[in-house]
Amino acid sequence: MFMPPREMAWPKQSDDRQWVKPEGDDPRTLYQMLMVSTSRFGDEPCFGFIPAPGMGRIHLTYNEFGELTTSVAKRLRDLGVEKADRIALILDNSVEWAACAYGGSAIGAAYTAMYTHQHGKDWAFILEDSTPKIVVVQNTEVLDKLCTSLPDDGWPPCGVILLGDDEANELPPEGVTVHRWAEFVAAGRSAEDLTEIADDPFALSTLIYTSGTTGSPKGVMLTNWNTLSNVLCVQGVFELYPGDKNAAFLPWAHSFGSTFDLHWMIRMGVHINLISDLTKIADECIEIKPAALLAVPRVWNKFYDKVNSQFESATGLKKMFIGKAQKSAEKRIAEAGVECDAVPPSGFFDKLWDKLVWSKVRARFGGNIRFCMSGAAALSPDVAGFVQKVGFSCYEGYGLTETSPLVSANGWMGNGKSRLRTVGMPANGVTVKIDLDAWDDPDRADEGEIVVYGPNVMGGYWNLPEATAEVMTDDGGFRTGDLGKMVDGYLSITGRVKSQFKLENGKYVSPAPLEENLKLSPLVEQCVLDGRNMRNTYLIVHPAIKPLCEALTAAGITPPKDKTDICNSSEVKAWLLKHLSENNMQEPTWKGYEKARNIILDPEEWSVDNDLMTPSLKVKLRNLLDRHDEAIKAL
Predict the structure, then answer these.
(1) Are 392 and 531 part of one and the same domain?
(2) Which of 33, 67, 168, 360 lies 20 to 30 A from 547 at CA?
(3) What total of structural domains would you count in the chain?
(4) Residue-wise burial string across 264-279, b where 16 or more C-beta atoms lie within 10 A, e elsewhere
(5) Amino acid 280: pLDDT
(6) Strand 460-461 with 478-487, pairing
(7) 538 & 455 share domain
(8) Among residues 79, 74, 64, which one has the least CA distance to residue 191?
(9) Do residue 169 and residue 46 come from a single domain?
(10) pLDDT score recorded for residue 299
(11) Residue 616, pLDDT score
């Protein structure tokens, strides 16, 4: 039976269009974008979610979500939320999260999103700084923690919206109303229609607070057009069709997650399916069968480790099939001469090996993925190349909260034009310049600080004019703090300006890509490379205890039973350092002077709870170095 070709919801933007402001039928606000999608996709599914463990997935259509969002907007208005106000969200990814964000947009209010696992002191700081009119909280546990963290005079004037059916344990001070979600929505449904829809593309749309690896978080001011320019520049570029499914697990409190796993999907008519258990992403993908998967490198690294470890443990006929499939995929990709893009199998044996091996790997994510996107940190070329062999197009992008976030990406330029070891070409409307004066390593004279210009650049940091002035150039560019270089129009990220350090011999070390390389080892969960003003570099590693013990036993070393004793063992440390040196710290990724000569093992996982990680999973280096100060001094 003939199947007509599918059409994307929107065509690719013209390469020569202006990006200063919306034009033609461009949406002017996030709410307007949602309403266009609601009118176009109506009764098609918009959201899928599992309401509670053990329950089946529930689905909401675009019409239903649009109606819910408008009801939220009307109730927010009636409670006193006005244009230019802020709405605070302490929620996990959910339909309610999205409805509050878009509902606020309808009346011209901006949302400020936080993570439910953040420290109460962080919530208190952000609420005091952003002065929202109302705060929406995930459950009674969040409300309890908020009650112990906020001073009596620190509560939003319009009160708290509490999700869930449980009665509150702790209540805020007298006079602060707690609105139950079901009652809040019901009141919005019966309220008078909105007489005015916000229409300013340059009004504040969201305040996203940076992670605060050093000092207090800063509120990044993003307008509707900041975010929409990002969404519009990738519409019609990547292969997404109305009715396609995605598996959303990137936190929407982070710009990568909100812009691309939510707003972009809404624009393209995609059926957004929320992952309910982050420890079982692959299991839920088997049910969802997503067409696209957006993730951070840590997800791809674990995928790479798991599949390769299973390949290595295979025996007999299965091992032969895997070897044939590996060689066949490598040959096919080499003959195609492309990087990042998936190359379908051709020929009898190529298709046979793909069916016997790679199709089973793809099935672990549902079997329907057309492309993957990786962002928020550097992706190893080895991992990207492996994902390509599996049969997924794998595109790495680059951006920051301050750039809404997209600056550049592979994939959007068209098939066959992506390059490994780069983050592609700058997106439409975005200009990248390399400030060579910000960097003085004579061995890397073509590198400098990346400065970004375009409609995606933030309006500044909330209430911090001096901090804004530090990162903005006189001609409107944003100083990213990242080191990079441009070759043939392709951008490569080589490190962070502030994280670079100099050894005693005068050589500079850029730790970020080296740390990502080490994380490919199944024995390494988390790691940091340092050595500023020292003769050699050293590592701080939180090891994967079970695989480490198995590897030690295989090497004839009996590991101690207690994980603290394992990490304190000089024999274990010496063996692991030698293992990483021989298997990971190799040319061309590592230069000789970059290779670590010492290692410190940390038995405790670095997390938000112990203040060693930010909510967006960046290491708080200062805190980690303080934690191991004595061991570092003893090196």
Answers:
(1) no
(2) 360
(3) 3
(4) bbbbbbbbbbbbbeee
(5) 83
(6) unpaired
(7) no
(8) 74
(9) yes
(10) 86
(11) 72
Angle at 44 between CA 41 and CA 48, to 5 degrees: 125
Domain stop point among 155, 177, 199: 199
Residue 388: φ, ψ to 5°: -60, -40
CATH number, residue 614:
3.30.300.30
Q: What is the pLDDT of residue 59?
A: 97
Q: What 3-state class would DSSP assign to 245?
A: strand
Domain end call among 167, 199, 231: 199
Q: How far apart are CA 462 and CA 468, in angstroms?
A: 9
**Burial category of 418 from C-beta neighbours within 10 Å (exposed 0-12, middle 13-18, buried 19 and up):** buried
What span, in angstroms and rounded, lies between the C-alpha atoms of 606 and 525?
A: 10
Selection from 190, 136, 142 nearest residue 158 by Cα: 136
If asked whether residues 441 and 509 sit together in one domain, one would say no
**Whole-number pLDDT of residue 304:** 87
Q: Are 192 and 201 in contact (CB under 8 A)?
A: no
- Give the number of other Cβ atoms within 10 Å of residue 53's Cβ: 7
Q: How far is CA 212 from CA 145, 481, 612, in A?
A: 21, 14, 11
Residues found in the chain: 635
For residue 2, the model assigns a pLDDT of 46
Q: What angle do CA 239, 243, 248 make, to 5 degrees?
A: 75
Pairing of strands 508-509, 490-496: unpaired
Q: Which residue has the tokens 């690896």?
A: 213
Tokens of 93: 């990814």
Q: How would DSSP label each residue in 145-172?
A: HHHHHS-GGGS-TT-EEE-SSSPPSS-P
Q: What angle do CA 78, 84, 89 make, to 5 degrees?
A: 70
In the three-class reduction of DSSP (H, G, I as helix; E, B as strand; rest coil), residue 116 is classed as coil
Domain ranges, residue 564: 501-633
- CATH number, position 188: 3.40.50.980
Q: Spell out, as residue ranges, where the chain has pLDDT lower than 50.
A: 1-2
